[in-house]
Amino acid sequence: MGRNLNVRFDKVRPFVFTDPQSFRPDALNVEKKVAVTLNYLKNQVNNFSISLPCLSRTTKAVCATIILVMGPAYLKVPD
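Structure (tokenized):
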């Protein structure tokens, strides 16, 4: 399962990345952005202690990326 998860991160990475110009040493990396999003969608709780605006932006970006990148492979549109 770990290998499959890394493959999925590699598909998402080009779209959801850490800003290289960020001066913040604690900027969210791709793995943490996906973890924060999936945790929030499951529990509706911010367990990662990040600000709500950051959580909102991250969740919207990761969801849009998942739909764009993985949607065609996993979501079948009915005929």
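The first helix runs from residue 2 to 12. The chain has a mean pLDDT of 77.
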